[in-house]
TrEMBL record:
The lineage of its organism: Bacteria, Pseudomonadati, Pseudomonadota, Alphaproteobacteria, Rhodospirillales. Keywords: ATP-binding, Cell inner membrane, Cell membrane, Membrane, Nucleotide-binding, Translocase, Transport. PROSITE patterns: ABC_TRANSPORTER_1, ABC_TRANSPORTER_2. Belongs to the ABC transporter superfamily. PANTHER family: ATPASE AAA-TYPE CORE DOMAIN-CONTAINING PROTEIN, OLIGOPEPTIDE TRANSPORT ATP-BINDING PROTEIN APPD. It is found in: Cell inner membrane. GO terms for molecular function: ATP binding; ATP hydrolysis activity. Residues 8-254 form the ABC transporter domain. This is Sugar ABC transporter ATP-binding protein. It is a peripheral membrane protein. CDD domains: ABC_NikE_OppD_transporters. The keyword Transport applies. One of its GO terms (cellular component) is plasma membrane.
Length: 280
């Protein structure tokens, strides 16, 4: 059996606060296979973003990794020095956050943002940069004519597509998406997630998709992790959650309550309703 792309073992992250250390991620372990899409659900404050940032080595004080191991494609991620880290990010892992405007520089043209990112990774030939930038825009369904525009000239959905194009520029093995479509309306959200699923099939990267929305995860992910108070309390498949089957029996009660909070598609469909909510 080939080793998984990402191995997370006993990862523990604390925040240093004036009152002492607060544990945000508590001994989390899981594997992610090459080309696999794993969703991470859980309520606000359960530690999803802290976990994602630690895996991508984007965490900053007061967050501190106080235990565990992260291995991506054989690299001991937590041991990378600053120089190696700069090369490792974007090439091996990239992160797409909720707000595209935080990732895009508002005063730079889109072409300049691509150029800067390529330059950081030693790709400076102007013709190559122009060609690759145009190709990346096409990849996410935006006309390359728009390369000379500034971020504010795009809609929210298009800006998030631009960030996804940047994230895929160096063909990373892992793309971490932290609430990538939360700020967008549901139609645009669906279009973008379908595009990510299509790109993943074509390009073969793995995705760690973080959201509080278990319904979205069940549509787009191969596996689901559920976090509660810093711990990964469930790791299963969307089908197993739908069937009420967890590891060694039923799902964790918290998973069930998350699942039961998804409104049924048709009002007459009582399947996911809690027994006491089913009309007699
Ligand atoms: N800078 C900080 N200092 C202290 N504690 C923090 C800090 N940032 C986050 N925390 C705490 O760490 C825990 C995990 O937060 P985190 O943002 O990772 O959760 P989350 O599941 O991603 O939440 P959300 O869905 O709201 O983004 C929470 O208890 C939060 O209050």
């Amino acid at each position: 059996m080939t080793a998984p792309l990402l191995q997370v073992r006993g990862l523990t992250v604390d925040y240093a606060t004036p009152q002492g250390a607060t544990r945000a991620v508590d001994g989390v372990s899981f594997d992610l296979g090459a080309g696999e899409v794993m969703g991470l659900a859980g309520e606000s404050g359960s530690g999803k973003s802290t976990l994602a940032f630690a895996i991508a080595r984007l965490h900053r004080p007061p967050a501190h990794v106080t235990g565990g191991q992260v291995t991506l494609a054989g690299t001991n991620v937590l041991a990378l020095g600053p120089k190696d880290l700069r090369q490792w990010r974007w090439r091996e892992v990239s992160v797409v956050l909720q707000s595209a405007m935080n990732a895009l520089n508002p005063v730079l043209r889109v072409s300049d943002q691509f150029r800067d990112m390529f330059r950081t990774h030693g790709i400076t030939n102007r013709a190559e940069v122009a060609e690759r930038s145009a190709g990346l825009l096409r990849l996410v369904g935006i006309s390359p004519d728009r390369l000379c525009d500034h971020p504010h000239q795009f809609s929210g959905g298009m800006r998030q597509r631009l960030v996804i194009a940047l994230a895929l520029a160096l063909k990373p093995k892992l793309v971490i998406m932290d609430e990538p479509t939360t700020a967008l309306d549901v139609v645009v959200q669906r279009e973008i997630l379908e595009q990510v699923a299509d790109l993943r099939r074509r390009l073969g990267f793995s995705v760690l998709f973080i959201t509080h929305d278990l319904a979205l995860i069940s549509q787009f992910c191969d596996r689901v992790g559920v976090m509660l108070q810093g711990r990964l309390v469930e790791l299963t498949t969307p089908a197993a959650i739908a069937a009420g089957e967890g590891k060694g029996g039923a799902n964790h009660p918290y998973t069930r309550s998350l699942w039961n909070s998804i409104p049924p598609l048709h009002p007459a469909e009582p399947v996911r309703a809690q027994p006491d909510l089913v009309m007699p």
